[in-house]
Design a protein that fits this description.
Immunoglobulin-like; 5-stranded mixed beta sheet; 3 helices; Cupredoxin; Plastocyanin
Length: 120
C-alpha cells in the first residue's frame, strides 16, 4: 500500500503520529531525533536545503557539489563564529552547532548564497 494511502487508513492513525518526514522519507520519530548530522550541498551558488532546524550539538556537513566553483562558508554572530575556509569542489567542512539560536551561513565568494540554521 502506498505511504499516503496507508497514513489515511483509520487503523494507521496512531502509527502516523509516530512518523516524521526526514529528507522526503517517512521514518519513525525516534530515528529522526537520533540523527546528529545533516548534509548541506553547496551547488550552483545555492545551499540545499536553504533552511534547517537542528538541535544543539548536531553537526552540519557542508559539501561543495560544484564541478569548478570554490565556496567559503562562514558565520559571524555575537555568540558563535565559524569560518570554513576555501572549499574546492568535492571538499567537505563539518560544523558542530553548540549554541542555540538562529544563524546565517554565507559564502565569502558568492554573497547571495544564504543558509538559515535554527538551533534549539
Amino acid at each position: 500500500m502506498p505511504l499516503l494511502s496507508y497514513l489515511r487508513h483509520p487503523r494507521s492513525a496512531s502509527f502516523a503520529l509516530a512518523l516524521v518526514i526526514a529528507g522526503g522519507v517517512a521514518v519513525p520519530a525516534w530515528a529522526a531525533l537520533a540523527s546528529a548530522s545533516r548534509v548541506v550541498l553547496q551547488k550552483g551558488r545555492h545551499y540545499d536545503p536553504g533552511d534547517l532546524f537542528l538541535r544543539r550539538g548536531d553537526s552540519l556537513v557542508l559539501v561543495n557539489g560544484d564541478d569548478t566553483a570554490v565556496h567559503h562558508a562562514f558565520i559571524e554572530a555575537d555568540r558563535f563564529a565559524f569560518d570554513g575556509g576555501d572549499q574546492e569542489p568535492g571538499m567537505e567542512r563539518v560544523l558542530k552547532l553548540s549554541e542555540p539560536g538562529d544563524f546565517i551561513i554565507r559564502c565569502g565568494i558568492h554573497p547571495k548564497m544564504r543558509l538559515t540554521v535554527h538551533v534549539q
